[in-house]
Amino acid sequence: MNKFIKDLSGDRQLWVYTVLLMLFSFWIVYSASSNLANVYGKTTPLFFGVKHFIHVSIGFLIIYFTHKFNPKYFSHFSRAAMPIIVLLLIFTLTRGMTMGGANASRWIHLPGVGSVQPSTIAFVLLMMYSARFFGKNDLSKITFTESLKKFWVWVFIIVGLILPANLSTAVLIFGMVILISIIAGYPFKDLFKIFGMGILGVVLMILVLKAFPDFLSNRLNTWQSRIENYFEPANEQTGILNNKNYQKVQAKIAIAKGGLFGFRPGKSVQKNFLPQSVSDFIYAIIIEEYSLTGGLIILFVYLLLGLRMFLIAKKTPIRYYKLLVLAVGLPIIVQALSNMAVAVGIFPVTGQPLPLLSSGGTAIWMSSFAIGIILSVSRHTELKQKKDLNEFINE
């Protein structure tokens, strides 16, 4: 065991924060899965707890093996993977699964693996490709037309394929790519053009959905209702009786019950009523069981996770590695903050998971892959520093 722990290289604090979140996720997912057990029937929370344990264990192995790779290989991998993920998204859009009577077109079923969400995979791959483009091209010399052909066309294709079925993820992906482009120093005058093209694309998508209402079932109505419900007060009686703001109301009740002292670990009541209690609204269950203090501790751990990512990016002297760490790391923190903001009623319902804590195989594995990439850069930086030090001593 000691040998295995010593073999874990890279930033030690990042390892600690990641493992702490993973370990805590076992108990909170097991505790919050009563609702799923009731929905599916003929099963128990233990089933979902074991399932989550398997997902997280695989995630840890993904981190371990990924962090052993030289980070330079991720550049080649992201370029090769772009056409493949586009084909997978097209297949998913046309063959997506049905959820709640509506064609969500988010999942595909793989034998022996289960349901997989390609948009989550595409998110990480596109961020890796963004780091590659901005890190390996001289932005002062490349023209807007060249960047459009080499990079932005991939962004628009992937976001466009995800947008009809998963608006929040599409917006988040586009926003994170824009953020990385700003950090990389992409010209603002060209960014305004990209924004204009993006808005035009959204308008065209809405027109298509209005013209063909049977296409992707009722996704446009779902977007509209979520926005309308967000601005409607979360009244407990109207929310429960009229099925409006139901999730927001139940999350509000869970947080109120948590208060300053919590309802005790494993004793949540709202997990039996709150839909997606193990994923989208798991933060509300955390506060109900562990109090507002427990919720703040989780928030603090994510902020520390983000701090370590910034420090790792700062330490590496290679521009591509800096951008790679930020490109795959910042979405984890933004997703976490977004999930928490939804749970406490600041944001409308988005469907974003709480990274490394929420149940779900694809989300856990891709977050683990991103953490592994960051640790790979950290490991490479440490090895280079040791090598330079040894060369200095031997001179």
Describe this structure in words.
With 395 residues, this protein is mainly alpha-helical. It has one domain (2-394). Helix content is 72%, strand content 3%. It is built from 15 helices and 4 strands. The chain has helices spanning 2-6, 12-32, 34-40, 45-66, 72-95, 118-136, 144-162, 167-184, 188-211, 219-231, 236-241, 246-258, 282-315, 319-343, 361-394, and strands at residues 98-99, 102-103, 108-110, 114-116. The strands form 2 sheets. A two-stranded antiparallel ribbon has the order 1-2. Strands 3-4 form a two-stranded antiparallel sheet. β3 and β4 (114-116) form a beta hairpin. The longest helix has 34 residues, at 282-315. Mean pLDDT is 83; it is low at 97-104, 236-242 and 391-395.
The total strand number stands at 4
Mean pLDDT: 83
- Number of domain units: 1
The ordered string of helix (H) and strand (E) elements is HHHHHEEEEHHHHHHHHHH
Shape: globular
Q: Give the N-to-C terminal Cα separation.
A: 37 Å
Helix content: over 70%
Q: What portion of residues belong to β-strands?
A: under 5%
The total of helices stands at 15
Largest sheet: 2 strands, antiparallel
> What is the SS-derived class?
mainly alpha
Radius of gyration: 22 Å
Strand order, sheet with most strands: 1-2
